[in-house]
Amino acid sequence: MKKLYSVLVENRSGVLSKVSGLFARRCFNIDSLVVGETFDPEVSNMTIVSSGDERTLEQIEKQLNKKLDVIKVKTFKEEQAIARELMLIKVKVNKSNRKDILEICEICRAEIVDMSNTHLMIQICDTPEKIKVFRTMLSGISVVEVARTGTLALPKCNDLEN
Amino acid sequence: MIGADALVKALSEEKVKYVFGYPGVAICPFYNSILNSDIETVLVRTEQNAAHMASGLARISGEVGVCAVTSGPGATNLITGIATAFADSIPLVCITGQVNSSLLGSDVFQEADITGAVESFVKYSYLVKDVNDIPRVMKEAFHIARTGRKGPVLVDVPIDIQNAEIKKFKYPEEVNMRTYKPTVVGNYAQIKKMVKALEKAKRPVICAGGGVLLADAQKELKKFSETFKIPVVSTMMGIGSMPTAHPMYFGMVGNNGKAYANRAMNESDLLIMVGARVADRAVNQPDLITENKVLIHIDVDPAEIGKNCGPTIPIVGDAKNIFEQLLSFEMTLDTKEWLTTLNEYKKKMVVKRNPNPKFTDPEAFIKLLSAKMKDDGIYVADVGQNQIWSCAYHEVKKGRFMTSGGMGTMGYSIPAALGAKLAAPKKQVIAVCGDGSFQMSMMELATINQVKKGVKIIVLKNNYLGMVREYQHFTYKDNYSVVELNDYPNLELLAKAYDMGYIKVENTSKAEAAIDLLLKDDKSCIMEVMVDPMDIVKG
Fold it and tell me: In CATH, what number does A2-76 get?
């Protein structure tokens, strides 16, 4: 089972290592982890994706809550959230495959953000599954470098939410 | 006023009486400032024992134990003591000196990343980078250590911060941490659910853990058990939560516990785990305690509930509060039949030992010692066979039983006993250890002399690391590896070297007179009790 954790933490040095250390020490999986400052410069938001059985996933939430640098933990399943991932990918191009690449980009709503005579850099921002599809579509093409953000997520908008 | 003065002032505000520690350059400003206060200092002989002494003091006084050591090796030596306190949820504030803050991260002399190193053994840690933070940090450190699930907090203070001028010292009256608000009062709906379940129960059992003692809830537990006629068993850390001879008490559970205690737990139809972690030594098959029964788990730490076993009714809160809440309900339970069964088990399931008359039988010895100790005496057991025998045969009346239960740190008893003695100078304090654990802390004999407090040290001597030897006896068919201690040191000469009394007990027949001699005064004394090297705890 996969679960997403949106964790508000104090924006202090060492907090990321405390949180990631907790996962390592207690043998919890980290599928992905993204950290960024919120509008409040004293608070950061971590989006952690983890997988495991129900008890482990519950323990993760409890152990996170126990950390004194953690302000709030929200957990949700994939379908309850809007999840996005950003990937930058640099590929080699030549006359014969350029069109194919552009076509794939268009279908997958990816953008060309930089280019030279021999290389293209593509940016795609989409759900983790779409990113995966895009990656498979490019399998015949020679990829030079890839950088990905990992999953960012927030629970879906809800009229009942305060 | 400088940072070091602020640290000391904060300790005074917290009414700290003793600081255990070992100086070095990086903590010298602090130890210079402490001379201007009423706080007494105890110079230990190795830093690990500073934490153990603070732990012994904390467990007896109910206050936060404090230690202060220097940077680098001073701080790293402290780690085992901190981890020991963490495993047993003992409140400590550990102050460590640190290199100049501008040099942090450059691997200079005696620099160790101590906040990083202790991360998994502390409730929280601080690296103070601004002298003006000291009052708030110290206030928070004490608050965190003593509230919720108690535990050690480390405060690392670079030497330049200790020497820096502080603008204004104002000790905060309140703590305001948005990330830390422990739940101590039980949820009413959950407690009502528990009462309903209890009314239906025919074979209820309470399993009391160290949390009962940490919450100082012994009276409430006893009253709850007596009022509703619910039998009590305990974990090792819970020993002493009920008087051992109480008719409702049925011993310690676990693989080193009483068979009838385990039987009570397994056959119950409703089990109340309170302040217990459900760790492997107490409950080696967590599934067994959830099968066919209602499991109610009470703990101040929500993360403990459901960690090792899934409870039917979870209740987060402090044991004392929850027992008080429970006592306000009216319930009728009929446990007469169940108690009769348990008493039969208790009578029948007694392990008969076959002691070797050439040596002292630990069972007979500890029972005698226990009977002759003062009712409110403090018994500190070390780790190893001595600990298991102590758990099995020591009778707690109105006193306390302490040991390193969670971490099982050898050498705990001597420093913890000294800490306990400082917390309760009028009480009889006895440390019982083996010859292995004795040698891990024997340097503190000097400290005991230096503070002029009487601690009785009993060494169950068998020239072996008995617990491991016993394990190798069963698991490796007597292929003994690295467990023989030989006969050193000569304890009589050692006692003389440290200007302490010395008594030897050759065999069981000599025990009674020797114990009388040991307990006739309050002077420090080493008692060497010769135990059969081949004796085992699994009788």
Answer: 3.30.70.260
Mutate to test the interface with B, among A66, A69, A70, A72 (most CBs of B within 10 A): A66
What does the alpha-carbon distance between residue B153 and residue B161 come to, in Å, rounded to a whole number? 19
Q: What is the pTM of this model?
A: 0.95
User: Are the beta carbons of A18 and B180 separated by less than 8 Å?
Assistant: no
**Domain spans of chain A, in order of start:** 2-76, 83-152
Instruction: Band the pLDDT of A160: cuts 50, 70, 90.
Output: low
A83-152: in CATH 2.60.120.1200: no
Chain A residues within an 8 Å CB radius of B120: 21, 25
Cβ atoms of A40 and A50 within 8 Å: the answer is no
CB contacts of B179 in chain A (<8 Å) are 10, 67-71
Interface contact B116, partner A, CB < 8 A: yes
CB within 8 Å: A59 and B303: yes
- Distance in angstroms (rounded) separating the CA atoms of residues B247 and B242: 10
The answer, for B105 touching chain A at a CB cutoff of 8 Å, is no
Q: What is the ipTM of this complex?
A: 0.88
In angstroms, the first-to-last Cα distance of chain A is: 29
**Contact (CB<8Å) A66/B120:** no
Enumerate domains of chain B plus CATH numbers.
3-163 (3.40.50.970), 188-348 (3.40.50.1220), 362-530 (3.40.50.970)
Which residues numbered 133-162 in B keep a CB inside 8 Å of some CB on A? 144
Sign of CA dihedral B216, B218, B223, B229: positive
Q: Alpha carbon of B363 to those of B46, B211, B400, B539: distances in Å?
A: 33, 28, 19, 11
CA B54 to chain centroid: 11
- Minimum Cα–Cα distance from A56: chain B residue: B307
Model pLDDT for residues A48-102, shown as the tens digit of each residue: 999 999 989 999 999 999 999 999 999 998 889 999 999 999 999 999 999 999 9
Q: Do A69 and B179 touch (CB under 8 A)?
A: yes
* The pLDDT value given to residue A1: 87
